[in-house]
Amino acid sequence: MRVLLVEYDDDTAEGTSGTLRSIGYAVDHVSTGAEAVEMLRRYDYDLALLEMVLPDMEGYEVVRTIRAARIDTPAMVLSSLVRPQVKVKAFSAGADDYITKPYDPTELAARVQAVVRRSKGYCEPTLRAGRLKLCLDSREVSVDGRPVHLTGKEYLILQLLLLRKGMVLTKDAFLNHLYGGMDEPEMKIIDVFICKLRKKLHQAGVENLITTVWGQGYMLKEDASSRPVVVKPVAAPAAASGASSLGAL
């Protein structure tokens, strides 16, 4: 998961970034509203976390601008302004939540996760696929209650597969989820991560959750068999002579 933090004060930005990274989010930081709009236009973020008071515009103007541009990235305002009128203005512009400073890091983490969950269509903090369970809050993965130890990148890949269960995800989608369009490695690294993830799931007793869709990407399915499935395109049947082909039917 990746967050764009829009905060003019570097010290505050450092503290907030630390809170977000502690719950597993990658963070990009900009200081102005114009930079925020440009980043949200160019990259796919899971959340924008904005200070209301910025050097060039107010935070709600950033939200209004991206909503007018049909950018549906969830937006949370994090500000020292507590007046009800300011909050109403932020929500009217399209903000998804508003939290005031000084904030409790635990509350901030919980509310960030809640907004992201809702934006993905999940109200509960737990994602499931058969015997597999992933807890978004604690970042714990388990099979039948037994923990499965994943690296950060393996967890993020499994998280995306669960959030988009039943959908084919391209390698570009995984790269964007892992790196946010910045400093991306070669595409083949996704195959390496998938291979290692499959191996760990197999060792935990879960097989065939991750399906390879030939020439397209990967997909997570609930049904399992003995080996990972590779879905290959089916070639059109060759034309046959009328009498012999009809006789074979």
From TrEMBL:
In terms of Pfam families, this protein maps to: Response_reg, Trans_reg_C
Q: Which InterPro entries match?
A: CheY-like_superfamily, OmpR/PhoB-type_DNA-bd, Sig_transdc_resp-reg_receiver, WalR-like, WH-like_DNA-bd_sf
Query: Where does the record place the Response regulatory domain?
Result: 2-116
Chain segments annotated as transmembrane? none
Which cellular component terms (GO) are annotated to the entry?
Answer: cytosol; protein-DNA complex
Biological process terms from the Gene Ontology for this record are:
regulation of DNA-templated transcription
According to the entry, DNA is bound by residues in 124-222
User: Which SUPFAM superfamilies would you find in this protein's record?
Assistant: CheY-like (SSF52172)
**Domain OmpR/PhoB-type: residue ranges:** 124-222
List keywords of the entry alphabetically: DNA-binding, Phosphoprotein, Transcription, Transcription regulation, Two-component regulatory system
MF terms in GO: phosphorelay response regulator activity; transcription cis-regulatory region binding
Q: Any idea what this protein is called?
A: Response regulator transcription factor
What organism does the UniProt record list as the source? Gluconacetobacter johannae
